[in-house]
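The records we work with from here on pair a chain with its fold. Taken together, the tokens spell out the fold as the letters spell out the chain. The record below shows the convention in full.
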Amino acid sequence: MKKQLLTIALILITANGFTQISYEKGYFIDNQDVKTECLIKNLDWSNNPTNVTYKISENDKSKVFTIEQVKEFGIYEYSTYKRYILPIDKSGTNMSLLSYNRSPEWDIDTVYLKIEIEGVATLYSYKKSSLKRFFYSLQDSLPQQLIYKKYTTESGNTFTNNTFQNQLYTDVNIENMSVKEISLVEYTSKELRNYFIRFNEAKGLTYSKDKNKKTNINLFTKAGISLSSLSISNIHSEPDDPLNIDFGSEYGFRVGLNAEFFLPVNKGKWALFVEPIFSSYHFEQEYKTFYDMGTVTAQINSVEIGFGVRYFVFLTDKSKFFLGVSVQYDMNFNSIVDYSDDRDYEILGKTFSFVGLGLGYNYNNWFSVEINRMPERGLFENVNWSADFTSYSINLSVNLFRSK
């Protein structure tokens, strides 16, 4: 298994080195209020950045500006960040490390805040690792943090400081919205964005908002052929025992579904997937009996359910390679190894295995082809027998529910 993990790590590191660098039209404003049009490397930051890579033109060398040099930058029709020096509550969010103090624990810091909703009332966000904070401002005032903090008591009870709801009611109050309604607003990006949109609309003012990233879903129908090899042996027998069988390699078929769930970070380069596949493998081989030659057959029918993650390497907007890693849960049925001398051995009804690998190509989220190495798995309920079962497959997939 260590070799498999090392292989996975090397593949992902290599892929990252060949990932397409995506520069998009944007701008930055320096400390002298000079605005520069440029191309910004869009990393779709999961954490608010402190330095940004850019080019003045397509053929220019890449450069980097830092938070000390630039007060504002943006990628047109995508995102905007502004620099502020302000207090941030950096209280821990880990349940085992919660503070006994209900009040925020302020720390003055220089940060880029991301504009989530802009209008007469503007909503900002800040994220660093597990720390997620939201800020707001009215007109051109300095942003203030919307206060939300979990804390504990010496008795071990956990409480939440929801002062942000009072701030909304006092400063960003939507007409005819009651205290009870505001108390139902949660400290999440979705709920706060919706609240600030409603506030700006109620004022009759226009507002601009960044593209709201969503978790895209693709659903593929998948079919393929596999090349599998199988050998079985009794752990108590000699290596040349005729009952130890090497079946060689045989072709089988696979058919099923694949559902991808793209994560809303890094511009669609990461996706989780679940893949239920029906597969059938048939092996047959002759062996020596005491009197004559016999035949042994191995029939393996299973529903293989893979759970994993994929990393995409973009070639163009429509064309990309991907690498996949998965663990697999197999449900075998009507599966048996049968010797012609009336001996047979049942195959495990359920197995769990690690690690499956996949390498593929996808065109326009519509069609894909993939080569898979299926994980090794146990077969026999009888502990005296062992199996060496490996499988490779090539699969074609067509999207039934392509994300827009």
About this structure: The helical segments are 2-17, 163-171, 179-182, 189-202. The CA atoms of residues 103 and 161 lie 8 Å apart.
